[in-house]
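A.,

Following up on our hallway conversation. Structure tokens first:
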């Protein structure tokens, strides 16, 4: 909600539908959620590449990348995590309006925050992808050494260690990276998008 009653949304003469027609595909937000080390970023990177090779217009938003700029003033308290996801939701909405297939890879540990992002979109414009991997496996992978730091007390409020992760109740897709390769995960998502007419093969 705007903090000022003097701010009014300024409509364009070019609509979201127009942009989709120009790009020749639907625009949608693919929201990857899961523990650190589950494979969210890795899968989103490979999926974006695969979509690009199909001629699809995309943009990928990643947790660390966004915290370098737009959200660099936010920490990792529950309140800041919520604001982090709120901002990403609003940016993603603009990108979907621009006609892009948008890939957002964020731990986004709180179910309420993810649901609030979903509410920004028409039902068919939001695809929640739960990248499911056990804490034990994520901790074994530990690509950034964050779990080790969390276990030693160097990092406080780390999701899965001393802060909660709330699994999605009814995501559109579940990727189990302990059983599926990155390419299998990418193919699964592409097949979903083709079946539901977001893209054509």
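Then the amino acids I'd put at each of the 201 positions:
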């Amino acid at each position: 909600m705007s903090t000022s009653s003097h701010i009014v949304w300024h409509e364009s003469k070019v609509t979201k539908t127009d942009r989709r027609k120009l790009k020749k595909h639907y625009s949608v937000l693919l929201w990857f959620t899961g523990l650190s080390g589950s494979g969210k970023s890795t899968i989103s990177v490979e999926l974006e590449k695969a979509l690009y090779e199909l001629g699809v217009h995309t943009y990928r938003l990643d947790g660390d990348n966004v915290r370098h700029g737009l959200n660099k003033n936010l920490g990792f308290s529950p309140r800041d995590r919520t604001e982090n996801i709120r901002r990403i939701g609003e940016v993603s909405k603009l990108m979907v309006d621009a006609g892009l297939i948008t890939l957002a890879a964020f731990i986004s540990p709180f179910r309420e925050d993810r649901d609030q992002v979903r509410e920004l979109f028409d039902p068919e414009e939001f695809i929640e992808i739960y990248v499911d991997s056990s804490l034990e496996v994520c901790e074994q992978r530990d690509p950034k050494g964050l779990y080790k730091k969390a276990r030693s007390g160097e990092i406080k409020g780390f999701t899965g260690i001393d802060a909660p992760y709330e699994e999605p109740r009814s995501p559109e897709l579940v990727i189990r990276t302990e059983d599926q390769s990155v390419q299998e995960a990418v193919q699964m998502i592409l097949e979903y998008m083709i079946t539901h007419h977001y893209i054509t093969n």
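The radius of gyration is 17 Å. Curious whether your intuition agrees with the design.

B.
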